[in-house]
Write a structure and sequence with these properties.
By secondary structure, this protein is of the alpha/beta class. It has one domain. The chain is about 15% helix and about 40% strand. It has three helices and 17 strands. The strands form three sheets. Strands 1, 3, 4, 6, 8, 10, 12, 13 and 15 form a nine-stranded parallel β-sheet that branches. It has a six-stranded parallel β-sheet with strand order 2-5-7-9-11-14, with no helix packed on it. Helix 2 crosses helix 3. The chain is globular, with a radius of gyration of 17 Å.
Length: about 230
C-alpha cells in the first residue's frame, strides 16, 4: 500500500465504468462537491478496492453505482445525509464516528430496464458471497448519527446485536405493521424497497431519537421479526 495521503479535493468528478481506485491510505482527507459514479454498467466496473481511510470528511458528494471491496473507514464526518446509491460492498468495515449514511437502491433516474439490470446484478453478486469470508459490511464498531442500510442483505452484515437488528422478510406474516411504533413500521416497510430477504435496522447511538428507535426495534425482536 502507498504511503498515507492527506488531501483536500473540491469539485472532482470521476464518472463512468472501467475505472479502479485501489491500494491507497487516506488520512484526514476532505472531499467537497465530488462525484464518484457510473450509470450504465450493471457489471459494476467502477471499483474502490484495498483502501484504508481515517478521519475523512465529505460535503455535497455523490456516490452511485460503485463496487467497494476490502475497504476500511475509521471516522467519516458528513455534512448531510449521504446516499450510497446502488452500490455493492464486500469486506467493507465502518467504525468510529460515522455521519448520516444510507445504502439505497439504484438510481431512479435510470431507465426501467437498466435499473432492473443493476438490481439483478446486485442479487447475483451477494448470492455468490460466502458469509464467512465475503461479508458485505462490518458495522459492529460504528457509531452512527443516522444509518439506513436496506440495500445490503442483512445476513452479510456483521453487527452489534444490542443496537443493530437483523430483520427477516419471511417472519412478517400475521404482523400488524401499522400497529407498531413508528420506527418499527419504517424499518419493516423498507422491505418494499429492498430485493433482499433480510436487512439490518440500526438504532444510531449518536441520534437524538436513539432510545425511541431502540425501543421500537426491541418490539420487533419480541415479535420474532428481528434478532
Amino acid at each position: 500500500m502507498k504511503p498515507p495521503l492527506a488531501c483536500v479535493v473540491r469539485g472532482r468528478k470521476l464518472v463512468g465504468s472501467g475505472r479502479e481506485l485501489a491500494d491507497v491510505e487516506l488520512v484526514g482527507c476532505e472531499f467537497n462537491g465530488c462525484t464518484l459514479a457510473q450509470f450504465g454498467d450493471p457489471g459494476f466496473g467502477l471499483v474502490v478496492r484495498d483502501v484504508v481511510a481515517e478521519k475523512l470528511s465529505a460535503k455535497r458528494c455523490v456516490v452511485d453505482g460503485v463496487r467497494f471491496e476490502d475497504v476500511r473507514v475509521d471516522g467519516l464526518a458528513l455534512s448531510s445525509l449521504t446516499h450510497l446509491t446502488g452500490c455493492l460492498f464486500r469486506r467493507v468495515t465502518l467504525r468510529g464516528r460515522i455521519g448520516p449514511l444510507m445504502a439505497t437502491s439504484p438510481n431512479f433516474g435510470l431507465s426501467e430496464d437498466v435499473r432492473a439490470a443493476f438490481v439483478a446484478a446486485a442479487e447475483q453478486y451477494y448470492a455468490e458471497a460466502d458469509p464467512a469470508t465475503d461479508w458485505a459490511l462490518d458495522i459492529t464498531e460504528a457509531e452512527f448519527s443516522e444509518a439506513d442500510l436496506y440495500y445490503v442483505p442483512g445476513h452479510l452484515v456483521r453487527r452489534d446485536p444490542e443496537t443493530q437488528f437483523l430483520l427477516h422478510r419471511d417472519r412478517l406474516a400475521g404482523v400488524d405493521v401499522k400497529g407498531l411504533p413508528l420506527f418499527g413500521q419504517i424499518a419493516l416497510e423498507r422491505f418494499d424497497e429492498s430485493p433482499f430477504d433480510s436487512i439490518v435496522a440500526v438504532a444510531p447511538r449518536r441520534s437524538a431519537n436513539f432510545a425511541e428507535r431502540l425501543e421500537a426495534y426491541e418490539t420487533l425482536r419480541s415479535l420474532g421479526v428481528a434478532e
